[in-house]
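Before relying on records like the one below, remember that each one covers exactly one chain. Contacts with other chains, cofactors or solvent are not represented anywhere in the record.
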Amino acid sequence: MGAYKYMEELNRHKQSDCLRFLARVRAWEYRQRPNMTRCNRPTRTEKAHRLGYKAKQGYSIVRIGVRRGGRKRQNHRGMVFGKPKHQGINHLKFQRNLQSVGEEKVGRKYSNLRVLNSYWINQDATMKYYEIILVDPSHTKIRRDPRINWIVNPVHKHRECRGLTSAGRKARGLRKKGHRANNIIGGSHRAAWLRRNTMKMKRKH
């Protein structure tokens, strides 16, 4: 087995003494640092490389902490001047996952870079921490690499804000294949429903 395979096995056993200790120490360190921090190298090397990271110019890693829990509605004193249906304040959940939220925060801060992918690194009682892989579309090394220069195309600006990254697609229910994906044929549940419920008739001239 190669080195990455051993690292992968280590990370799979998160309840082991070694990883529990590492996670506790790292969580303490992350709490002392700014919430969004540029990293010199990925914490989980094998995971980063599996998701497209290369240790060369044009690639960056940024760590982001996202506060855990549901999304409380921002109403003054919890008063909703409307129908009882809309009076919920506390038990509301955000539609997208926290990983997708973290990607969006990083994408807005580093607006000249493109978000390629991200992965979980740690969590504690209040925060979840992710590392985001960023690519510089104006760097010559990226523009000349045929494996990654697709991201230079302007249609990939702020992919993370439009649910096009892996975490964003998961939130949209699109990370499926085979017979499980029958309900998203055509791009989404809504598109599939509309196509099946629209009567198409041939017109005679």
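The chain has a mean pLDDT of 94.
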